[in-house]
Amino acid sequence: MAAYLVRRVFQAILVVFISAVASYVLLSFAPGGPMAGLRQIQQSGRFKITEEDIARIRAYFELDLNLSVRFSRWLIGEPRGPLVIGGKEYFGDMVVGCRKPIEKEVLNARGQYEIQVTGCSEIVHLKDITERRTSRGILLGDFGLSWRLLRDRPVSDLIASRLTKTLQLIGLETLFSLIIGIPLGIYSAVKQYSKFDYFFTSLAFMGSAMPSFFFGLLMILVFCIIPKNAGFPYIPAGLSESVRNYTIPVIGQVVAGSVKDRTLHLILPVTVLTIINISGWSRFIRASMLDVLRQDYVRTARAKGLSQRVVIVKHALRNALIPFITIVVFTIPGLFAGAIITESIFAWPGMGRLYILALGDYDYPVAMAIFFILAVLTVIATLLRDILYTMVDPRIRLN
Amino acid sequence: MTLPAQLDRIKAEAITIEERSPFQVVMRRFVRHRLAMISLAVMAVIFTITILAPYIAPYKVDELNVGNYFVPFGTVDPDTGRTHYLGTDNIGRDYFSRLVYAGRISLTVAMLAVIISETIGIFVGAISGFYGGWVDAILMRFVEFMLTIPTLPLLLIISSMLIRNEDLIPIPESVLTFVGRIMLLGPRDTRNAVLIVIVLAGFGWLSAAQLMRGTVLSLREQTFVEAARSLGASNSWIILKHMIPNAMAPIIVDASLGLAGFVILEAALAFLGFGIQDPVPTWGNMLSATQQFMFDKPWLPLISGTPIFVCSLAFNYIGDGLRDALDPRLKL
Predict the structure, then answer these.
(1) Minimal CA separation from A122 to chain B, in Å
(2) Does the ipTM surpass 0.95?
(3) CB-count burial class (<10 Å; 0-12, 13-18, 19+) for A211
């Protein structure tokens, strides 16, 4: 067990590291970023931006450093300068980047002009970066500073304010899915081939085929826009609380930012997430219950004369829940990813929407931080699932 | 023929069932799945409409009917006599025509992604399962690694990078013209679509590879493989002629479910703004464009959202029917 755990933890760390490297490299290849707009301003000739200004701004965003150095500074906050051992500096002259690249416009094969870097007129050495501000590295929880969305504010501030909103959604979603989904699955399995079972399975099938973005828009239409236009009571959609007070027929005046207001805004996104989640989970519970109900020990329990209730709750359900637990654990990071779409539809100020905004707005430190958090969550969940699997079912051997 | 012999023959005929080929058996089972048959019919209609797009659509993809913004359903254009069956959008483009062309693009993207991902999956899975050992270990560790990365966020990163830097992955001109001809797009717009196909397929082959590996592992021990080997068949022959054809059942099911998945995923990427971009119509970006007008015109999201849902549901039912038909014990 110990050896297995060590190996799995090591694997997990490797996965996180590789996915961090991959996404960092990918995003550094993406054009745009803080420099693209600057170049356009420079070309338009409205402002005088000297080469020195550009070099300074490049240095500000660390874009003058080599990719590997930049990545290492982002991940662990090193190197901050030359290595100091016993009062002596080492590697001070190591080249870590280029402050002023020599750029040339060349005509490429497809007949378009491209900027090519042909050389470097001012090299950055390791000893030059001692004065710079450095994050402590994301491994220590310092995600650096935001580029665009909240310029120069720590990314962690931005994420912290959004995280609670996402956790609200996901927490409620999980809670309701469990409360509603498990009984539905059990009932459907116990009454297999009944009218309810047919109705439920086809509904769940449709639910799992339904794209969440379309479903979300439909819910907004049916519960917000149409009743609102018709003058009926409606459920507000968009944002997590409204900006000014409003009146809903029957319910009455709602003060902006009050508990009532916030609860009303939670209803639609949580419903969408819950319904989509239930269709998956309860189908799983149903299948797993059907499997267990066919077992000999259930027949034995029935033969002993136990009541239907005891047989189902004590003998069948407990065994059916074993595989379900692992499914639940594993879907939790998926819920964060799923929240990306739902949050975008409802303009819910959570992490998922922040991620989309950051990617669209070239705020790569924010995007990277969220991706890194999601990757870590997924890997931890995978690890937990595999460990839980073996703990709840001793028949599965570790190797 | 003597009487007892005749009697024997009649008896023998009575107890023998009519001979059917495996294909006939599968077809009979599939036809019995009513929803799958309905779905097949629906998809046939949708495919026919999209294939005949230039003849069915009254307007061109980006034809602007200037001044006629948000006209209601079935408005006839007085100048040309053509009908806006589903009205027009905010800059006067015909919804019905765009929907038809968008279907062509969205379905082509999904089909290409399925073909590529299943092909990669089949070969990776077959090689991994057949050779075992370190090949298997490396390939399957890689698949496991890919499966642990949160897909949607990474997909968003990759496509956001690719749509801003389209030349990053070189695509042969011939591929672009070929795909462009299917989608009725110019080379530049095609590049965008092909990149999305690559992104989708790059993540789609994992399940196919795992399925294929599992099947090949069990097939490897079968006697017909042993027989083929004793007849002197090479490894590649056994894989191509014995393993892959025999392992097709789960792959076909996976492919039809994959179609549903890719239609939704492509639409989701476009919806979030990181898929195929606006002048080129897809169901996803048409849906996302309607979002800002839905407060006044609540029917708009239904126009482009319905085909996404219908296709996804239909492909899912077809997959379900195929699974029941091909192998009743099979559970994905």
Answers:
(1) 28
(2) no
(3) buried
